[in-house]
Automatic annotation (TrEMBL), chain B:
InterPro entries noted in UniProt: Bact_solute-bd_prot1, SBP, TAT_signal
A Pfam cross-reference name: SBP_bac_1
Protein name: Extracellular solute-binding protein
Organism: Streptomyces nitrosporeus
SUPFAM superfamilies the UniProt entry points to: Periplasmic binding protein-like II
Length: 328, 428
């Protein structure tokens, strides 16, 4: 039921004030069904800030942007209905195609590498050893600060010409210069930045690994199974629900990359559009070029694309995710 | 149970009340908030620039508030690109600052959208003084008899050079030198000093405008582009060859040191930019930097004009008189000139121009440069910038850079540029 919270509040106010008064409109004590309704009401009222926020800050703008995606709107003049024009413009736009290419590349390379790093480190940290909790905290820390602007600025400084990375390369005789100004290399700097922030999936993997029964490994060892065999035949299947969760979350997350690309490229999404991720182009069209209709259309297309990818992942899980019998 | 329920409900009501109050506050916060109490009026002034300019502007504001105790000025600043994003959003939301720093690329865009205040009536009422401007600058932002801004400073395109490198290479730029002379110099510098002659001018819209004007054309007409593919293709083809041969600086390196300048970081012996930017070179770099004249096609015409930063009012301001008073103060008060220096270009009024005598070499050079081009009589009126010029300028820079990085061929780049320019003109 979508009742406006504002309208409900005064109604509820009545009975509270006169709760003990004679002839109060409150329910008679011990009335069988009313408390349930009241509890619902209480629930809705507690939720009201969230509901209001959702309606005004999420649902409303979404519906409006869906409308805008079929219009030409420069923020000042009234939106002008153009039908599917924005979508056809998009497919004809080489920069839009570039943004799709860059984003797909980022998702396809960045996500698996990040998850592999997270799993590898989680497996190391799952073993009991001295200083374990320190290492866990240390590896998790980057993901706390990783999404911040300052980390991206530091990253930019690290990978610039004649900076730390460049100098280290030179020690090994690799003369490619800094990565930031190189259209071929800058995307690797972005991938490295996301991989470096593997803390969150790592913690989830760690929890998953703890759930794998020791007996399975012991039995496998008795049967003579080696390290890799144990990994592929016990660990991976046993943590597959956790793996699925991480794949899903990180994929969706990667599609929405913005801050790191924007800042590492010095707000240009360049050089030569090499870091023109989808959201970066959307932002440029909307807020720099004042093409809000086009930007809205891009946003909706991204939503549909992420939805499709998520659906495919859910469909595929039947083939590789193993839930315990009777499922928990 | 019922007792608990009661307490819960009471708390809940408090919560509901609080959140309702919160919403109310937010709504109130959306108002203009510029009405004052006790007869004082508060106006908001926002501008782009860095910390250094912030200190100077704040000093001027303090001085203004002292002289006009009934007007308070709240200031706000961002970097150039962020400034326009924020202003766009504020203006679209109906809550723009009362006074903004403005530039010619944005003038028609916001005039067409009725965002800017017509200052003519304020001048007629005597709140804004339009006398004493240099070289007709008071008409700089006049469109169809209405006035949408007043220049705070003026500047002109120039060639900033690393004097030491030029001297060692034996290249001596002089008034009326041609593009061929310039290019021969670039090669001499490259061969003799092992450094690129120029940072690569192919993305600088304002320089290309000068080259077009030297040939009787211009970058913009009042409502569109003043040139076509036939002009741009050879220009960019040549540029790519010069990048490859090392006469223009390595674009990969130029990209990495941004926002620092290529010449100050020793990547090139010079670059084309606005003359008042030369102040930053001495701060950023280790050499000594000077201003050289713009090369010409025929040995005479440079195509130069005075570009200008201006102050504009918001059409939605509730205090047009105070806005005009503030703008008038910023453009005429001699003390303001002594505080700002050439930070926003050479002062636009004679009173301010005479009030500030630079003591340091870079600023002295700017003053001398401006005087020299004015005396040489090369200054022409500026060509119009249609709505969308800001987007076109950014596209020209970006596509020019892509080209030099070898991402696209000159043909593709030219095609892409005109396609984006068309979209920008249509959607702004």
């Amino acid at each position: 039921m979508q009742t406006s919270p504002g309208a409900r509040a005064p109604e509820a106010g009545g009975p509270v004030g006169k709760r003990n008064g004679p002839g109060g409109s409150g329910p008679p004590a011990g009335a069988p069904k009313r408390p349930g309704g009241r509890e619902n009401l209480t629930g809705y009222l507690f939720m009201s800030p969230w509901i209001a926020g959702f309606l005004f800050l999420v649902a409303g703008p979404m519906v409006f942007s869906l409308y805008l995606s079929f219009t030409e709107y420069n923020l000042f003049d009234a939106p002008r209905w153009v039908g599917l024009q924005n979508f056809t413009d998009m497919f004809a736009d080489p920069r839009w195609r570039q943004s799709v290419e860059v984003t797909s590349w980022y998702v396809l390379i960045g996500t698996p590498v990040k998850l592999a790093a997270a799993l590898a480190v989680a497996m190391l940290l799952a073993q009991k050893r001295w200083g374990q909790s320190f290492y866990r905290a240390a590896f998790y820390a980057p993901s706390l600060i990783g999404a911040s602007v300052s980390a991206a600025i530091v990253w930019r400084a690290l990978f610039s010409d004649d900076a730390l990375v460049d100098r280290t390369q030179k020690v090994f005789g690799i003369e490619v210069g800094g990565w930031i100004g190189d259209p071929e290399m800058i995307i690797y700097a972005l991938v490295a930045l996301t991989v470096w922030q593997f803390g969150a999936p790592m913690v989830i993997f760690l929890a998953g690994l703890k759930q794998v029964p020791r007996e399975l490994y012991e039995a496998a060892e008795v049967d003579g199974a080696g390290r890799w065999r144990r990994f592929f035949h016990i660990t991976l299947p046993m943590i597959s629900p956790v793996l699925f969760f991480n794949v899903l979350l990180e994929t969706i997350h990667s599609f929405q990359v913005f801050g790191s690309a924007y800042i590492v490229s010095n707000a240009t999404c360049g050089p030569a559009d090499a870091t023109l991720v989808y959201t970066c182009y959307l932002y440029e069209q909307g807020f720099v070029n004042s093409r809000m209709g086009f930007a809205s259309a891009m946003g909706w297309l991204l939503l549909v694309a992420v939805g499709l990818v998520t659906a495919v992942l859910f469909w595929s899980q039947k083939r590789w995710v193993h839930y315990e019998e009777g499922g928990r | 149970m019922s007792r608990n329920n009661g307490i819960d409900r009471r708390q809940m009501l408090k919560l509901a009340g609080l959140s309702a109050a919160g919403l109310g506050l937010t709504a109130a916060g959306c108002g203009s908030g510029s009405s004052g109490s006790g007869g004082t009026v508060t106006i908001r002034h926002s501008w782009w620039g860095a910390d250094d300019r912030a200190k100077k502007v704040q000093q001027c504001v303090t001085l203004f508030e002292k002289k006009h105790p009934k007007i308070k000025v709240k200031t706000d600043f961002q970097q150039y690109a962020d400034f326009w994003k924020k202003f766009n959003t504020q203006a679209a939301g109906g809550n723009p600052p009362d006074v903004i720093q403005n530039a010619v690329t944005f003038l028609r865009k916001y005039e067409a959208k009725n965002v800017l205040l017509d200052l003519k009536p304020q001048a007629e009422k005597g709140n804004l003084d339009l006398t004493g401007f240099r070289a007709g600058l008071e008409k700089f932002a006049e469109i169809d008899g209405r006035l949408f801004g007043v220049p705070v400073g003026s500047n002109s395109m120039a060639l900033v050079i690393d004097e030491k490198v030029y001297e060692k290479a034996g290249v001596a730029p002089g008034a009326g030198w041609t593009w061929d002379d310039w290019y021969a110099g670039m090669q001499k510098i490259k061969n003799g000093q092992g450094i690129a002659g120029d940072a690569g001018p192919h993305g600088v819209m304002y320089l290309y405008d000068l080259m077009l004007r030297q040939n009787g054309k211009a970058f913009f007409t009042e409502d569109g582009m003043g040139f076509g593919e036939a002009e741009l293709l050879p220009y960019w083809t040549e540029a790519l060859a010069r990048v490859k041969s090392g006469v223009y600086a390595d674009p990969k390196k130029v990209e990495q040191i941004k926002p620092a300048s290529a010449t100050a970081k020793g990547l090139s012996a010079g670059e084309f930019t606005w003359d008042n930017f030369s102040v930053r070179y001495s701060a950023e770099g280790k050499s000594s930097y000077g201003l050289a004249p713009i090369p010409t096609t025929d040995g005479k015409r440079t195509g130069q004009y005075l570009g200008s930063l201006m102050l504009s009012g918001s059409a939605r301001t509730k205090h047009p008189a105070e806005v005009a008073t503030f703008i008038s103060f910023m453009t005429h008060d001699p003390e303001v000139a002594r505080i700002m220096g050439y930070d926003r270009g050479v002062p636009a009024t004679t009173a301010q121009f005479e009030a500030y005598e630079p003591a340091d070499a870079p600023n002295k050079a700017i003053g001398a440069y401006e005087t020299a081009i004015a005396d040489a009589g090369v200054l022409e009126p500026i060509t119009p910038h249609p709505a969308g010029a800001d987007v076109i300028e950014a596209a020209f820079l970006r596509i020019g850079t892509d080209l030099s990085l070898g991402k696209s061929s000159p043909e593709e780049s030219v095609k892409q540029f005109f396609s984006e320019a068309k979209t920008a003109l249509a959607s702004n």
